Amino acid sequence: MTDALQGERAAEELKELAERAGRELEDASAPEILQWAADTFGRKFCVSSSMEDAVVAHLASRVLPGVDVVFLDTGYHFPETLGTRDAVEAVMDVTVITLTPRQSVAGQDAEYGPKLHDRDPDLCCKLRKVEPLEEGLMPYTAWATGLRRDESPTRANTPVVGWDEKRQKVKISPIARWTQHDVDAYVAEHGVLTNPLLTDGYTSVGCAPCTRRVLEGEDARAGRWAGRGKTECGLHG
Ligand code: SF4
Questions:
Q1: Based on CB atoms within 10 Å of each CB, which residue in 153, 166, 169, 180 is the most buried?
Q2: 33 and 24 in contact (C-beta within 8 Å)?
Q3: Residue 143 belongs to what H/E stretch?
Q4: Ligand 1 pocket, 205 CB below 6 A?
Q5: What spacing in Å lies between the alpha carbon of 77 and ligand 1's midpoint?
Q6: Which residues is 170 bridged to in the sheet?
Q7: Does the residue 220 lie in any domain?
Q8: Dist. CA 134 → ligand 1 center (Å)
Q9: Of residues 46, 124, 207, 233, which has the active-site annotation?
Q10: Is the CB of 171 under 6 A from ligand 1?
Q11: Ligand 1 pocket: which of 99, 207, 212 to mutate (most atoms within 8 A of CB)
Q12: Residue 231: how many other CB atoms lie within 10 Å
């Protein structure tokens, strides 16, 4: 059997494993879902975090101490987000891995012109988020996200465990069924670090040029790429 065929078969088996786990763990608690991930993938499992809060990182560190937490430093983050990353690294039993784009913001400006985020946010996200994450996830078989079904209509069908076709990896969303209330309760109970911007009118925190405070009655992600006809950065599509 060629390496390519072997790879295809391994991916097919992983996909079946992910889809079966998604069905079987649909009603499981977040710790149970993460325990399954730790038992199944060990150190080949990581958590991705935007440093909006450290809820999933905290949950994962309880079942897999020292778990890798992957953070994308786009070069456009609010200082509060970088501060949250540093605090998580300092106080939690996790290993923070900061991924950076191939080009600095200055390098990107020189090649594509300034403020690419205003003119072509899809390309900017591709260069500063999608490609670095793709490379950064290469050592892992499975990754966890903090996606929740209640965040926006585009996330309403998020499985707790699914198959990430684009990256050929198992994608775990242990708090997919949680509400904002569940997150707040977990943060309060465990004293989990959160981004200070969450108490300053932001309900979803991304890059500074593409994030604004939300207005009364808007959904949690309404402040992301507001007015630009874009709702996701391409990491989860
Ligand atoms: Fe660029 Fe905005 Fe995407 Fe950040 S969120 S990578 S600044 S387009």
A1: 169
A2: no
A3: strand 142-144
A4: no
A5: 9
A6: 142, 163
A7: no
A8: 16
A9: 233
A10: no
A11: 207
A12: 16
CATH number at residue 179: 3.40.50.620
Reported as a single tens digit per residue, the pLDDT across 6-49 is 777 789 999 999 999 999 999 999 999 999 999 999 999 999 99
Q: How far apart are CA 213 and CA 203, in angstroms?
A: 7
* 236 assigned to some structural domain: no
Distance of CA 132 to the CA centre of its chain: 13
Does residue 233 have an active-site annotation? yes
Total count of domains within the chain:
1
Segment 38-78, tens digit of pLDDT? 999 999 999 999 999 999 999 999 999 999 999 999 999 99
Q: Whose CA is nearest to atom 6 of ligand 1?
A: 125
Instruction: Name the residue range of residue 46's domain.
Output: 3-210
pLDDT above 70 for 141: yes
Cα separation of 109 and 93, whole Å?
37
- How far are the Cα atoms of 81, 202, 217 from residue 87, in angstroms, in the given order? 10, 20, 31
Q: What are 134's two structure tokens?
A: 């793709």
Spatial distance between the Cα atoms of 19 and 23, rounded to a whole number of angstroms:
6
What is the C-alpha separation between 130 and 127, in angstroms, rounded?
6
Among 163, 167, 233, 174, CA closest to 204: 233
165-186 as b/e, with b when 16 or more CB fall inside 10 Å? eeeebbbbbbbbbbeeeebeeb
